């Protein structure tokens, strides 16, 4: 939800807005809901328009396994966020070098939905889209209304570096599964690999003579110590409180087990009433009640909260690994950025300390009605090469879906810490799916109306759980949306 960033027009372009990811923020609740609904109705109409001018299939060769038409234009629209656009422009140059007779129409925008929705309606979408940011198109709707091409041909194609390996065999665990919604078809390729968790300055933690807390009693003790030294324990993106789940959801999984998160994703009755959810909500609410949250946090956006945190006004912030690149211009050189898996409740937790949320972010899609679907997939094949992966990691301080690509690279503090957190987690990696299965439910309802209200002190944990369960029940009964379940 994900891993990705955007320039926020409210910041006059001076600060890099993030969103990665996998999550992708609503610029403002009242603004995003209108285009979301219009997109729903547009997709329901089947898209309209024709695609009779589809590019003809090219000659399939060892160097062109997807049979790209070497004279057909390929159009690529990128989300212009915290990862920037240079990594994509570099990959486009390789595509153009490999097919010198064709042209690539490349553009970057923060307004993915408002820019591309009319083109989906007309049946003239681009060939490759980085569907991210505040105006991310609802992935569940796109899949449910048959708007996307199945990426299986790409995954089964020879990898760019080693023809003896399929593309799918070069990817990090879970990437292929994330792109599936029901059945074997793969609709989305998440290019970035995001580590979600609790981010902090190791220098600041050392100044308190503390280690990262593993139990909630220890967390409260560290926050109290910070408070006495004039530093808040926590801050978060108050205007976009769906950042809170980056640490809250894996905490729920740690306390109650993966099955609790699966039940929530599946929209099962009373899933939110599980004791693990109650325990974790009450723990977070305690941060508010004890005054450990930076004053004014509910009014801060992601950039403002990250800036306050980077300036040492707060110790911890829930975020994704894009935060290192996104906060680079405000983070002191000696900040010593680190990330940890969420603190648990106590030794009775179902999963060990180190349980973390890590998953694909930056969702790339190839529209079903694109003129040059083979070209869109070939561009992704290039991006999933070792060289392109290293280029991305070097430039934006984030891992990619390519399983490797860090050899020979001097890892930045945050990236090094993220890799260490993944190593510590081992198999204890969770991947909640609400953020890509039900975008509006996750962001506007659970995030803004539920968690945001609780952390601002306007709802008790019990009231927030009841409200969120109601939202989930409404979504489960809504026949206008396609429903998904863990297989």
From TrEMBL:
Keywords linked to the UniProt accession: Signal, Transport
PROSITE patterns noted in UniProt: TAT (PS51318)
Keyword Ribosomal protein: no
InterPro entries linked: Bact_solute-bd_prot1, Chitin_NgcE, SBP, TAT_signal
Keyword RNA-binding: no
Domain of life: Bacteria
Cellular localisation: Cell envelope
NCBIfam families: chitin_NgcE
Protein family membership: Belongs to the bacterial solute-binding protein 1 family.
Protein name: N-acetylglucosamine/diacetylchitobiose ABC transporter substrate-binding protein
Organism: Streptomyces osmaniensis
């Amino acid at each position: 939800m994900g891993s990705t960033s955007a320039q926020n027009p409210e910041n006059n372009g001076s600060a890099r807005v993030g969103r990665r990811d996998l999550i992708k923020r609503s610029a403002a609740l009242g603004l995003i809901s209108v285009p979301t609904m219009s997109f729903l109705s547009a997709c329901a109409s089947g898209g309209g328009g024709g695609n009779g001018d589809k590019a003809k299939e090219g000659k399939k060769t060892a160097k062109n396994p997807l049979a790209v038409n070497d004279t057909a234009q390929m159009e690529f629209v990128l989300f212009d966020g915290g990862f920037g656009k240079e990594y994509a422009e570099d990959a486009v140059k390789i595509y153009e070098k490999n097919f010198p007779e064709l042209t690539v129409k490349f553009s970057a925008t923060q307004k993915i939905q408002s820019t591309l929705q009319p083109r989906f309606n007309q049946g003239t979408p681009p060939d490759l889209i980085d569907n991210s940011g505040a105006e991310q198109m609802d992935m569940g709707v796109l899949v449910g209304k048959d708007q996307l091409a199945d990426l299986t041909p790409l995954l089964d194609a020879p990898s760019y570096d080693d023809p003896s390996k399929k593309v799918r065999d070069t990817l990090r665990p879970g990437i292929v599964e994330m792109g599936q919604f029901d059945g074997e078809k793969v609709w989305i390729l998440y290019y970035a690999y995001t580590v979600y968790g609790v981010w902090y300055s190791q220098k600041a933690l050392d100044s308190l003579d503390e280690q990262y807390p593993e139990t909630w009693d220890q967390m409260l003790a560290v926050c109290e110590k910070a408070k006495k030294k004039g530093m808040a324990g926590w801050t978060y993106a108050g205007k976009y409180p769906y950042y809170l789940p980056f640490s809250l959801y894996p905490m729920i999984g740690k306390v109650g087990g993966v099955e609790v998160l699966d039940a929530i994703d599946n929209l099962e009755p009373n899933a939110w009433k599980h004791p693990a959810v109650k325990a974790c909500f009450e723990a977070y609410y305690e941060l508010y009640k004890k005054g450990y949250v930076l004053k004014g946090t509910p009014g801060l956006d992601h950039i403002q909260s990250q800036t306050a945190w980077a300036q040492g006004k707060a110790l911890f912030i829930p975020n994704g690994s894009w935060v290192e690149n996104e906060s680079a211009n405000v983070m002191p050189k000696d900040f010593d950025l680190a990330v940890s898996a969420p603190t648990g409740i106590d030794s009775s937790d179902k999963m060990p300390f180190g349980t973390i949320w890590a998953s694909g972010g930056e969702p790339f899609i190839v529209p079903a009605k694109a003129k040059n679907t083979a070209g869109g997939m070939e561009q992704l094949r290039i991006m999933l090469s070792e060289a392109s992966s290293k280029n991305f990691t070097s430039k934006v301080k984030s891992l990619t879906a390519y399983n490797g690509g860090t050899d020979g690279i001097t890892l930045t503090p945050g990236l090094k810490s993220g890799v260490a957190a993944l190593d510590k987690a081992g198999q204890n990696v969770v991947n909640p799916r609400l953020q890509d299965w039900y975008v509006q439910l996750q962001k506007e309802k659970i995030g803004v109306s539920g968690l945001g209200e609780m952390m601002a002190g306007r709802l008790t944990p019990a009231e927030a759980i009841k409200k969120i369960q109601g939202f989930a029940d409404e979504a489960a009964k809504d026949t206008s949306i396609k429903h998904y379940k863990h297989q």
